[in-house]
Amino acid sequence: MRKQLLIGLAAATIAVTALAGCSSARTDTGSSTTVKKGDTIGVALPAKTSQNWVLAKASFESALTKAGFKADVQYAAATNTVPDQQNQISSMITKGDKVIIIAAQDGSQLGTQVAAAKKAGITVIAWDRNILNTKNVDFYVAFNNYKVGQLQAQALLDGMKAKKSTGPYNIEIFAGSSTDANATVFYNGAMSVLQPEIDKKNVIVPSGQTTFQQVNTADWDPKNSQTRMSNLITSTYAGGTELDGVLSPNDTLGRSIITAVQAAGLPVPIVTGQDSETASIPLIMQGIQYSTIYKNTDDEAQAAVKVVSALAAGKTPDGVDKNDKTNAGNGVITVPYVALTPVLVTKDNAVEAYANNPTLEALAKKG
After folding, report:
1. Does the residue 17 lie in any domain?
2. Closest Cα to residue 131, out of 156, 162, 100?
3. What is the pLDDT of residues 61-117, one digit of tens each?
4. What is the pLDDT of residue 33?
5. Is the Cβ–Cβ distance between 125 and 101 less than 8 Å?
6. In a domain, 18, yes or no
């Protein structure tokens, strides 16, 4: 019996040693993957609806190449977008990409694809946007999007107070696309700041439109936000009611809102934004758009690649939070989350905030 026990222990030791000798990492969702330097890493990006998505491809290709991997980066088509991204992910699985990093066009419609990826032993990393209603996501890498919403709302309040010392202040609320998991997180973060002020009647929403269902913008399309702002002006502000501020979830929508207000011949209110798009920096420096949020695309791509590099080294990635339900809950699990810190940017701190980005810094200095 003792001889059989020793033989069993020896076999177990050999098995553990063999596993330790390859670059295999056990992920928090319970599946193991094997990835090594030189492997191809798939990156599935959504349609190019904003500048940060346009920049993402080069950021990933550079970061993956420098880390010793091959990059397979693809955008979803501008039309038939969700099926196109689904097909691209399926193709990455068939080709044998060892890790697939996904910025979901619609995080609720990728369950079949990520389940297939996990079955094939592929690590799935949700990037910038979470993937919803599935256990088959290993990591989520993104900026703290709840904090983004809080920063936007506080900037709105601060901007209005700086412009007009006493309230109450009239505002309108805009949110992103209902198909984007981040949009509700931005909205919830913003409302955590705004709702107490609304309850105290320090802030008023004259249109009465405050729920996410009422204020979301389909497909993040600026045509939709411009139309809604024009309709709000006609229905609510044509009689002389003053509009003090608009919560805009990103720069693209913010500019469309400003366009609608200007077209109506009204004074431009305090308007927030996000993404530090080059078209919005001059507006901020000129005092037309009040604020934006800086989320460095290179930093976000590099954070995802660091996760891949850790897996290739057989290590647990650094800085993973397994308990952030607010940002990383996907309806089934709380996805192990690597968070980056967003930066609020106004005219006052723009040059300093963009010191590590020569293009944006130059725009801020130019004014």
Report:
1. no
2. 100
3. 999 999 999 999 999 999 999 999 999 999 999 999 999 999 999 999 999 999 999
4. 61
5. yes
6. no
> For residue 361, how many other CB atoms are within 10 A of its CB?
17
pTM for the predicted model, two decimal places = 0.87
Residue 7: inside a domain: no
| Low pLDDT (below 70) residues in the chain | 1-33
Please, what's the largest Cα pairwise distance for the chain?
93
304 and 281 within one domain: no
- Residue closest to 188 by CA, chosen among 273, 247, 254, 258: 247
> CA-to-CA distance for 352 and 355, rounded, in angstroms?
5
Q: Residue 172 pairs with which residues in a beta bridge?
A: 246
The whole-angstrom separation of Cα 199 and Cα 196 is 5
Q: How far apart are CA 322 and CA 29, in angstroms?
A: 11
The strand ranges marked E within 99-240 are: 99-102, 123-127, 139-143, 169-173, 203-204
Give phi and psi for 307, each to the nearest 5. Answer: -65, -45
Tell me the residue type at 216.
N
Task: Count Cβ neighbours within 10 Å for each residue of 187-208 and write b for 16 or more, e otherwise.
Answer: bbbbbebbeebbeeeebbbebe
Please list, in sequence order, all residues whose beta carbon lies within 8 angstroms of the beta carbon of residue 265, skipping any fewer than 6 positions away: none
Q: Are 129 and 116 in contact (CB under 8 A)?
A: no
Residues 125 and 200 grouped into a single domain: no
